[in-house]
Write a structure and sequence with these properties.
The protein is α+β, with helices and mostly antiparallel strands. The chain has 3 domains: 72 residues, no CATH class; 73 residues, Rod shape-determining protein MreC, domain 1 (Thrombin, subunit H), CATH 2.40.10; 71 residues, Thrombin, subunit H, CATH 2.40.10.350. The chain is 29% helix and 30% strand. It has 3 helices and 12 strands; from the N terminus they run αααββββββββββββ. A 6-stranded antiparallel sheet has the order 1-12-3-4-5-2. Strand 6 and strand 7 form a beta hairpin. It is elongated, with a radius of gyration of 32 Å.
Length: 231
Amino acid sequence: MTVRNFNTMKHRQSWFLGVVVVLLLFFIFFMPSVGMKLRFLLGPQSLSFTSTDQLMAENESLSAKLSELSVVAGEVPHQTPDTVLAMAYSDYPFNFKDEITLNAGSDDGVAAHDAVLFGGNLIGFVSGLTAHRSVVQTVFDPNFKLQVRIGTKGYDALLVGGPYPMAESIAKTAVITSGDVIYNAAPNAPYAIPMGTVQNASLAPDNLFEQASLSLPYDRSGIQAVEIVKQ
């Protein structure tokens, strides 16, 4: 190979390399997606930090979704054609007990007065809704009232809501003991859905009836995934 031919070849290589560099810079600044692919092909190490950050972000997103799904699976394991699964929005740090806001509404098949269950227990009824939201009046609302029955004998009572829900208007002849199940007996919810158990039974202040305080199998702040029973 002559000196002239060698210089010509070297000049062509330098020109080609210059064109490649210019094109690479163009793609990086004006077509980032193509530029990233070229950077990967020309130098895999240059993507190490970008790829790691992207993978970490995707991993955090997937972890959040997994947490949400695990809550739903743990608290409401099965959905049927007659139910709608929904997540409760957080009201922390205010912790309003009277009502709960859910991420399902009329467009999801929810209707006013639908019963709402948590862990198989009746916790309230839908009192208001929009297309994609619904508000639940819970047993902690002082205005909440529901016909219930108690124990294996099915003693009639009226459940009155509040910070400490009570079963009232129980016949004095009823034999109520701690641990007896208090369950729904009203027609606007599935019959015999439990609401809690008797904590303490005592004579009402009017001396005409008995009353019983409730022991609830859940904590209000722990309600995240619920089941809405369509009417």
